Amino acid sequence: MAKTIMVIDDSASLRQVVGIALKGAGYDVIEARDGADALARLNGQKINLVVSDVNMPNMDGISFVKHFKALPNYRFTPVIMLTTESQEEKKREGQAAGAKAWVVKPFKPEVLLNAVQKLCLP
Question: Could you give the number of structural domains in the chain?
């Protein structure tokens, strides 16, 4: 059975690029346009990994991670932040919220896929 990855980004073109890379590697993809949209799409189904932007309207990525990690079903689900943010302070904030990896845009799909393969829950 394919593993499911949620991709959260306010940029439709970025969601598409990430989605193509993940689908090409055999993953199922659920897309969301921001943290609030992502939380609304969670219906208890198994999510093996989340790839989230940091800067988004309605609910940013770090706030999303805090809410997501508070849900019992998703407490141990790994989150990769995919963002233009590269400051150490933002990275620490992301890690404190529960993010496991930080990939800076622009990114190479193979770098992202490598991180996904390492972190994706069985």
Answer: 1
pLDDT along the chain (122 residues), means of 10: 95 96 97 98 95 97 98 96 94 96 93 95 76
Contact 10, 56 (CB under 8 A): yes
Q: Please report, for the domain that includes residue 33, its CATH number.
A: 3.40.50.2300
**Could you tell me the pTM of the whole model?**
0.96
Contact predicate 65/99, CB 8 Å: yes
**Closest CA relative to residue 79, chosen from 43, 108, 24, 42:** 42
- Domain region containing 61: 4-119
Instruction: Please list the residues that pair with 81 across neighbouring strands.
Output: 52, 102
Which residues have C-beta within 8 Å of that of residue 6, sequence separation ≥ 6?
29, 30, 31, 32, 38, 41, 47, 49, 50, 51, 52
Q: Tell me if 57 sits within 8 A of 16, measured CB to CB.
A: no
The residue whose two tokens read 């770098």 is 111
Q: Is the dihedral of CA 60, 95, 47, 109 positive or negative?
A: positive
What's the CA gap between 78 and 116, in Å, rounded? Answer: 9
